[in-house]
Amino acid sequence: xxxxxxxxxxxxxxxxxxxxxxxxxxxxxxxxxxxxxxxxxxxxxxxxxxxxxxxxxxxxxxxxxxxxxxxxxxxxxxxxxxxxxxxxxxxxxxxxxxxxxxxxxxxxxxxxxxxxxxxxxxxxxxxxx
Length: 129
Prior knowledge:
This protein is mostly helical.
């Protein structure tokens, strides 16, 4: 479920090249479209998508951390349960994977690189972001 959710949440990033190609004008069409406004809207969309993903990942990590903590406490009380140990290892692996998702948001870097290449002359993001 986590993977499917992220697939949907990365739609903006996955389509950024297409979005830029269809909305940011080349020099010959520069007068027909307001590239500054288009780039600003795309910037806001990227910022919102990245912030949303960050919140979701952190929320999932918090919930999974609680699950792992509870399993560890159960295991300490009943150390001879093999099923409990297997479940704990499985949940710990999920937690590590989610933590790595937070640290390796490569998609963000790629999106910002493409955005900056196409929009740098049309829109300057606020300095505090």
